[in-house]
Here is the input.
Amino acid sequence: MARSYVHEARRRVGPRRERIRPIIERLVLEHPDAVIALRFRDPVELVVSVMLSAQTTDVTVNRVTERLFAKYRRPEDYLAVPLGELEADIRPTGTFRQKAKNLRGAMRMLVEEYDGEVPERLDELVRLPGVGRKTANVVAAERGATQGIVVDTHVRRLSQRLGLTKHEDPVKIERDLVRIVPRADWARFPHLLIWHGRRVCIARSPHCEDCVLVDLCPSSRVQRSATIVQASAPPPTRLKPARS
Ligand code: SF4
Here is the structure.
């Protein structure tokens, strides 16, 4: 896309600070079911699920953890079996050797340093082997202790397309987002972008003609008149039903 066109598109939709509220409001209406898709019953299961979800689908993780959590109930249980057995139990999630090694390391640290409990603070969570900032943010948010904004591949793509950031680095994207997203929305904002990214703003071919953000998005492929659209204006009439 030519630079002048990008500049013009950004000018047309207005400043990101003015667009962020209507973006959130419309996505809440569009995706009222936008919550984490992983299934877990306690903080340890949450950590395990999120660690296993790297580079695979939530559906696969849920299928694996259904049997895994029946067998491994406490952090100690992950240390009580041979490494090869744990690897076999999580194999369908991919990169299972590295994941099994990280799971054992994380569970060992929980047992030895946190009495088997999962800490709430981000700086403690990222100490666990295999737990990066994204995983730590997911765990903290799902426990009601949100301290940042989760940036995964969908959040990165949509934040860029919506003109909320120009960065590629997840840490810099998160820094941009926490400056404009109201703190009360930090936990649900990534879920809204993730579900919108799965259903409408698809990576290869975004369905801009079906998108409720079409007048707030500088990357919209829908041809519009030269009129500047106010951020507070009601969403455009949908042309086609949303995909599910
Ligand atoms: S208008 Fe198009 S590019 Fe922008 S958020 Fe919607 S689907 Fe994505």
Remarks:
- Residues 110 and 116 are 5 Å apart (CA to CA).
